[in-house]
Design goal:
This protein is mainly alpha-helical. It contains seven helices and two strands.
């Protein structure tokens, strides 16, 4: 190889290396209508879930005895643990809601776990045909909504919202590549 061949090969090799490095770092993502809507929906759901958990937790902390009675109606935990749950669970709800508002790590995970717990307990109440206060907010809220079954399906909706947020966080900016109406960006 002569000196001239080396000079010509160097730019080609450098170009190939830069192109290969760029291809490894690039992950396609959607822009346009879907990303804009998805960002708006994420923000709306995040604020909605956060405020819901803060509100529900604060109502329970305001009257822990009423919440303790609601927990006791399920008959799932020993009586000695009920006062701890009546104070601890609402406090965790408020903290998780605040954490979600301020994007603190693990707050969305805590909300997902609580929703799964609530759905499980409400599912038990439905299966056991219990006609009780779900303990979600207040007794007046339960009467206005109808039943434990309504709370169960409502929590399924909240779970769907939380799962959407989780999906959005894990794949932030990395949606599937779709051809057609949607635009695809290959570099960030």
């Amino acid at each position: 190889m002569t000196d001239t061949d080396t000079r010509e090969a160097m730019p080609q090799a450098a170009t190939m290396a830069v192109t290969a490095a760029a291809d490894k770092e690039t992950k396609p993502r959607l822009i346009g209508k879907w990303e804009g809507f998805s960002s708006f929906l994420s923000l709306f759901l995040k604020w909605g879930l956060a405020l819901l958990f803060i509100f529900a937790g604060a109502l329970k902390l305001k009257d822990p005895r009423a919440f303790a009675q609601a927990i006791g109606q399920y008959g799932l935990v020993p009586d000695g643990i009920i006062p701890v749950l009546a104070l601890g669970l609402p406090a965790v709800e408020v903290l998780a809601g605040l954490g979600l508002l301020f994007n603190l790590r693990y707050s969305l995970g805590a909300i997902l776990i609580m929703l799964l717990l609530f759905i499980g307990v409400l599912g038990y109440a439905i299966a056991a045909d219990l006609d009780i206060d779900c303990g979600c907010f207040t007794a007046a809220d339960l009467a206005a909504r109808g039943s434990v079954k309504a709370a169960f399906f409502q929590d399924l909706g909240f779970l769907a919202a939380a799962l959407f947020l989780r999906w959005r966080r894990r794949g932030r900016g990395q949606g599937p590549v779709i051809s057609g109406q949607w635009s695809v960006v290959s570099k960030k």
